[in-house]
Design goal:
Number of helices: 7
CATH topology: Four Helix Bundle (Hemerythrin (Met), subunit A)
Number of domains: 1
CATH class: Mainly Alpha
Shape: globular
CATH superfamily: dinb family like domain
Order of helices and strands: HHHHHHH
Largest sheet: none
Length: 167
């Protein structure tokens, strides 16, 4: 059984997907002022997971094409939504191989290649919070684009129920 924080990450991922359900490829590349477009947000979250859970943790790269387009500090871009979702799916599948093996002890270790003093557990929390940040941002963009019948609040908690941590 995955660690509770991994379950939390998966729930955040599912809420991000729910927030973007029905989004057209055309609307996904619209930038409103300085805000990044929604397709960029999808790719950017894939970039972070790829960096943390695939490149650093496993020594491989599930989506090498993503960093130049949506990596931290890169210029604004409007990548195709289908390409970003394809990268996201490849990255999350590869990341899950690592995440499924996390234990409470592993969460207290420092990831290879990270020099910021954050443990694996802190990186996991950062990743979860990053999803929620972009979920809210994407939702706001969709509201500004005039999209109707958007999800309200947090969805079905059946896949995000609290359970105690165990080894």
């Amino acid at each position: 059984m995955p660690h509770p924080l991994v379950t939390n990450l998966r729930f955040a991922r599912s809420e991000f997907q729910r927030c973007l359900a029905g989004l057209s490829a055309e609307d996904a590349i619209i930038r409103l002022g300085p805000t990044n477009c929604i397709s960029w947000m999808v790719g950017h979250l894939a970039w972070q997971e790829n960096l943390y859970w695939v490149i650093r943790a496993q020594g491989r790269n599930a989506a090498p094409q993503i960093e130049d387009v949506v990596g931290f500090g890169r210029p604004a871009s409007t990548p195709a939504l289908d390409e970003m979702w394809a990268g996201w799916r490849a990255v999350t599948a590869a990341a899950d191989e690592y995440l499924d093996a996390l234990t409470p002890a592993t969460l207290l270790t420092y990831p290879p290649g990270a020099h910021d003093g954050e443990t694996v557990g802190t990186k996991l929390l950062r990743n979860i919070y990053h999803y929620w940040f972009h979920c809210g941002e994407a939702h706001a963009v969709r509201q500004q684009l005039g999209h109707k019948n958007l999800p309200e609040f947090v969805g079905d908690m059946g896949h995000g129920l609290y359970r105690p941590e165990s080894e």
